[in-house]
Specification:
The chain is an all-alpha fold. It has a domain of 63 residues: c-terminal domain of poly(a) binding protein (Orthogonal Bundle), CATH 1.10.1900.20. The protein is rod-shaped. It is built from 5 helices and no strands.
Length: 115
């Protein structure tokens, strides 16, 4: 049986890992083993933080909605509860956008919930 030489495959794999570690500090950008470990850690952080980002954005929207509600004489809890009672199906992202860009429309929604 013929001998298989794996130099091309190994070099390609190594290049791919080092390209992924481009911009890392110290030896993690140039040493294969360190780069591989750093990338594994980076990938796990990126997976985790894609979920954390959603959580943080929702917190941010809640703060802005609460602030806008208080300007209109209502608190956040009563506002969200009132939206559910009146079957007004606006998500927090849309409410936040309304509160920032169209405060007069947001105040009309608050008045509708107060009724």
């Amino acid at each position: 049986m013929a001998r298989t030489k794996r130099g091309k495959t190994t070099n390609k794999k190594r290049k791919k890992v080092l390209a992924g570690a481009k911009g890392f500090k110290w030896g993690r950008k140039s040493k294969y083993k360190a780069a591989k470990e750093a990338l594994m850690k980076a990938w796990s952080y990126s997976y985790r933080d894609r979920r954390t980002k959603k959580r943080e954005m929702r917190r941010h929207w809640n703060i802005i909605i609460n602030n806008a509600c208080r300007k209109n004489g209502m608190n956040y809890r009563d506002f969200i509860g009132g939206l559910k009672e009146k079957n007004i199906e606006l998500d927090r992202k849309a409410l936040c956008t309304l509160a920032k860009q169209r405060p007069e429309t947001f105040s009309k929604i608050v008045e509708e919930v107060k009724k």
